[in-house]
Amino acid sequence: MKFTEQQQQVIDVRNRNLLVSAAAGSGKTTVLVERICQLVMDEQRPMDIDELLVVTFTKAAAQEMKSRLFLALQEKVKQDPENLHLQKQLSLVHHALITTIDGFCLQFIKEHFYLTDLEPGFRVMDENERMLVFEDVMDKVLTAYYEQKDPRFLAFVENYVDGRNDQRLGMFVGKVYDCAMSTPWPKEWLRDCMKADEGPMERLLADMKQKVEDAVNLFMMAKEEVIAYPALQPFLDHVEGELAKIQPVLTLPTYEACYPIMAGYKVANLPRASKLAEPEKEARAIAKVYRDSAKKLLEDLAKEYFFETPQEVERDKEVMKDMVDILCEMTSRFMDAFTAEKRKRNVVDFSDLEHLTLSVLYDEPGKPSKAAESYAKNFKEIMMDEYQDSNALQEAIISAIANGHGVNNRFMVGDVKQSIYRFRQAEPDLFVQKYDAYTYEESSSQKIDLDLNFRSRNQVLQFSNQIFEAIMQKDLGDIAYDEHASLKYGADYNRDMEELYHPTVCVLNQAAISEKREVAEARMIGEHIKELMETSERPLEYRDIVILLRSKALAPVIVEELGKMEIPAVAMEKTGYFQSTEITTVLSFLRLVDNMRQDIPMFCVLHSPVVGLSERELAKVRGANPEVPFYEAVRCYDENPEIKKKLEAFFSMLSEFREMARYLPIHELIKAFYERTDYADYVSFLPNGELKRLNLDILVERARAYESTSYHGLFHFLRYIDKLTKYDIDLSEGSVNEGKNAVRLMTIHKSKGLEFPVVFVAGMGRQFNKSDIRESLLVSAKDHIVLRYADATMRIRKNTIFFNAMKNQMDKENLAEEMRVLYVALTRAKETLILTGTIRDYDKAMEKYAARIRGKQLLYTGKLAAGCFWDLILPALMARSIYTSANVVVEVVSEVPKEAEASIETLEEKLLTKKALLTPEGTPEGAEKIKTLFGKSYAHQEALLLPIKMSVSEIKHRFMEEVMCAAFDEEKAMEEATPFLPDFFDEVETTNQGALRGTATHRILECIDFTNPALVHPEQEAVTACVKAVVQEGRMREEDCKLVSVAKLTTFFNTSLFASMREAAIHQKLRKEQPFVMSISPKEAGLSGADEEGILIQGIIDVFFEEEDGLVLLDYKTDVVREKEELIKRYRKQMELYKEAMERSLQKTVKKVFLYSFHLQEVIDVTFN
Q1: CATH of span 11-122+347-450
Q2: Would you give the DSSP letter of residue 267?
Q3: Sign of the CA dihedral 264, 268, 270, 272?
Q4: Pairwise CA distance, residues 823 & 752, whole Å
């Protein structure tokens, strides 16, 4: 193979630290393998392969490198069969230390366990077992803190834990712990967090000055527009006045110096203009856009960073120090307890491997041990692949064993533009720092760029370069996309057909379509795929096409819509394992083996093929004994002999399995269930049976893996599964689609390192995930810990300037990561690249983008304003003036094809069916026709993915997502937030627990007798007496009743609505807490699926009563809201379902539907038309 000059230089350079910046498609793995071959074949200083340490990012990459190295050496041996040294290397390949950093650390600890506190038989936990141990230890540590009653701890709980439970507290400690463990010296990092740190203020000033500089640029752009027109002199004077006022800030060194100028900053009013000529009007309009953008930028900046005096800033800092200190102390104690528990079980996690390795390699931070010096002599060269994804901990490990032979011997290769694992604590800054420090000239620390791309057509490269030259600068992400970083064409494609391969940007304008945006985008993609299949210059198969997504949430919709368009498509990363019907059935049976008194698992198993009761039969069982729990109703049912026989057989089997569970391993218990019920064979004959059977087999293997952990028994296994479900750790559905000729869908992260002839990058209009900066706790390895200011006693919660500074810093880091993710996506395409996505209003967006660019680049604040990929790509296209260029095709789509009508079987098809059935099976014609007839796909495949049963709450939340902001507004919630303490902590006086208030209010209304004469226009004393009576009767605990606001109850009992309820109760026409079960269509539940497929829903109606002309329905609400419209939006769907359930079951009309808000103390009419 002929290498380029730069590639050959990478292969040949010796005796120095070498950093190779290898762009996408530059052949870095091939070069790395050739370098290793040349090192072992060096005529002057030949090495053995086991004298090399090669660290890769994944096990798959390590295995691939070993395979490629073996083949390369095998070829060298063929060329020189007498070379004994080469033959030796060939035999050493499979023992070579080509591994991940975790693999290296594991081997190192096994060799040096005697220098640690580990027993020699230690085991590495998988992530799922670690999660269980983690939570168990966390519970013990927090319980100990509650028992100690540390005032600082109690203050932290009151300030930052909501009223429901203290899971938020464990989340905070876990978040700090994870960040600490990504650093080389966790305890030192925690101690640093507890010290006063000037770093946040420095970053605040840097961010502020960058924004001021952008404002100055915007004013200058406004000035350039009007300076040529004398009639616009007042406008020019206005702009120059603002420049004179704001520019001095750029040179001021401290916050205190900036404060007098920036506090309450207001841009002066714009002077009016009249009798302007048309060119002057146009110039003024453009200049006003720039001036208004600068005005908003500066005034927002004043509100964000200069809303407090320097003295108030220092006061907030001191107040929050106590909160940070106790959080660090909790984390440190948890760290010790977690380590002790792991040692007790003789297990380690992957983080332990790295820290134990570090503890052996260093006597103290920065001072390598004698063990490190000795071990370093084993390696003549240390290579790190994907260096951009390493972190400070891994860097410290490698640094300790480098230079073991007295010369620089580190080889690092990667591409900082492809660092997309920040969520795994990757620190691309390490690469950037070395890249800035190393030289292109020969030196002890040298860098080489591999920028020739051998993967993609020139059009793809030109398009990518144009985008990233506009958005990637040092101000965001520390990457300058310059001549060294840009991609150069190195492939050898046919240049005659280049006009067929221009990248395409498809913007779906939501303002002009009525369909759901995900569905419309999927159909737009389908139309492009059809066009490609018909017009491609070379034969194109579906497997040549990949659709890349930022997250896999969009994949099911696209697969479904492409299927409707007869385009085969498969999602390579599937979700929904635990929601699949076959897994739900097996787990429900196991839950009954563990505890039979569980209604939903009982219903699931009885309705499944295991027992085979229909919905109608289950309704008979429930209806026979409606007053007792469902389990008891099932056990005592004896009306229908056939149903009774099925139930008796089931409980007999269940008793056997409960006995077997005492001694059988879980995986054997599951296999016994498959064999006893033939369930695995049954699902194999269903549509997608091969996939369903594979899912059942995966469950057996997961149970087998669980048994190798330190946990045992069915109860803990079910808890283990619950944790996997809770934390969205999906086992992934089995895949039987490998090699299938179909369009593939995968996440951008999954596509890293791969290449495809045709690439769609979809979902360009989906919002970036910024949930991590919406929390009250912000944590960063570099910037330590910042908490939102909170004082529960004063009912205050606010952002400090330090919190805003760190939030903005993390937002910048998130945006830099999103840019790198986009770079990975665009550089996967070999020939054809198509970007698709929706935008709310295209014309308005383009007006907004115009103020975010200066010259050919986006302004710093223009990038910070990006909420999705379109907010980067479209202004970049505008800045680079390539909307009109032949380099890219931009389509603004305002209409997409409707869903194809379902085909109707024709008369000819019916005749074919009849003839096939009448044709003897033994004839070739008959056999072929029967094969055609019965080989068709199941027509209602999507129904197999529907849940069997849902609660009204689940459906309510699906519809609430459309009307409520996903982000939790903590400042609003603080209004009614109350501290959380466990029940046993009754010595401490606490305020009413807001999270339990709703339950207590519902219960007291259920227990109070509405016919009591004392409730006729009652005073507060009468209501208090009614509440006390409920306690005396033993129907509620006194501490629960204390959660109820008697004053608000009194207000409710004095409404005209309650007067009607009391009248109905006297005539026995009022019902409380009425449960129901009914069947609705998937569409009504907010799901996709055939309308004829029913889904059972269950719920409980608070109260309803009957009047002469119909029923009146009421639901109690204790939500904290500002206005009644919020409640109506939230609960409309719930009340619709309640109304439908009542009308179906009672065969009577519901004439009125009400909500009663105890927060607003108001009756709200939500009656539907």
Answers
A1: 3.40.50.300
A2: P
A3: positive
A4: 10
Residue 951 bridge partners (DSSP): 1098
- Cβ atoms 854, 217 nearer than 8 A: yes
Interval 351-356 mean pLDDT: 94
Which of these CATH numbers, 3.40.640.10, 3.30.56.10, 1.10.486.10, 1.10.10.10, describes 577-727? Answer: 1.10.486.10
Question: Closest by alpha carbon to 577, among 596, 549, 552?
Answer: 552
Tokens 């260029």 sit at which residue? 885
Residue 129: pLDDT band (50, 70, 90) is confident
Of 3-17, 851-865, 933-947, 1009-1023, the range with the lowest mean pLDDT is 933-947
Tokens 């890249």 label which residue?
Answer: 435
Q: Which residues pair with 949 in a beta bridge?
A: 1096
Q: Domain 504-572+742-893 is in which class? A: alpha beta
Give the per-residue pLDDT at 1164: 93
State how far the Cα of 714 lies from the Cα of 595, in Å rounded to an integer.
10
The token pair that represents 363 in the structure block: 């006597």
Q: What is the DSSP string of 489-539?
A: E-----GGGGGGG--EEEEEEGGG--S-HHHHHHHHHHHHHHHHHHH-SS-
**CB burial class (10 A; 0-12, 13-18, 19+) of residue 1149?**
exposed
Residue with the two structure tokens 């109070």: 1008
Fold of the domain built from segment(s) 127-182+313-345: Enzyme I; Chain A, domain 2 (1.10.274)
Q: CATH number for 950-968+992-1165: choose from 3.90.320.10, 3.10.580.10, 3.40.50.720, 3.30.360.10.
A: 3.90.320.10
DSSP collapsed to 3 states, 84-109: HHHHHHHHHHHHCEEEEHHHHHHHHH
Question: What span, in angstroms and rounded, lies between the C-alpha atoms of 139 and 82?
Answer: 66
State yes or no: pLDDT of 1105 exceeds 90.
yes
Picking from 85, 63, 73, the residue whose alpha carbon sits closest to that of residue 34 is 73
Tokens (6 digits) for 845: 């967006």
* CA angle (1011 as vertex; 1009, 1014 as ends), nearest 5: 90
What is residue 200's predicted lDDT score, i.e. its pLDDT?
Answer: 73
Mean pLDDT of the residues in the chain: 85
Q: Quick one: pLDDT band at residue 213, thresholds 50, 70, 90? A: very high
pLDDT, tens digit, for every residue of 147-156? 999 999 999 9
Measured between alpha carbons, how far is 161 from 973 in angstroms, rounded to an integer?
12
Residue 824's contacts (CB-CB under 8 Å, 6 or more residues apart) are 24, 418, 420, 748, 749, 751, 752
Q: What is the pLDDT of residue 728?
A: 58
What is the C-alpha separation between 988 and 1003, in angstroms, rounded? Answer: 25
In angstroms, the Cα distances linking 980 to 154, 328, 331, 795, 1014 are: 9, 20, 20, 15, 35
**What are residue 1164's DSSP bridge partners?**
1155
Nearest Cα residue to 330 out of 729, 787, 771: 787
Positive/negative CA dihedral, 10, 11, 16, 21: positive
Q: Under 8 Å CB-to-CB from 909, ≥6 apart: which residues?
A: none
Residues 6+ apart with CB under 8 A from 170: 135, 138, 139, 142
Query: What pLDDT was estimated at residue 1112?
Result: 94
Alpha helices in 113-232 (DSSP H): 127-148, 151-160, 167-181, 186-193, 199-226
d(CA 36, CA 45): 13
d(CA 512, CA 935): 41
Give residue 689's pLDDT: 81
User: What is the predicted pLDDT for the residue at 1040?
Assistant: 83
Q: What is the C-alpha end-to-end distance of the chain, expressed in Å? A: 76
CB 590, CB 716: distance < 8 Å:
no
Q: pLDDT tens digits for 794-825?
A: 888 889 998 998 999 899 999 999 999 999 99
Tokens of 472: 């990637």
What span, in angstroms and rounded, lies between the C-alpha atoms of 676 and 660? 13
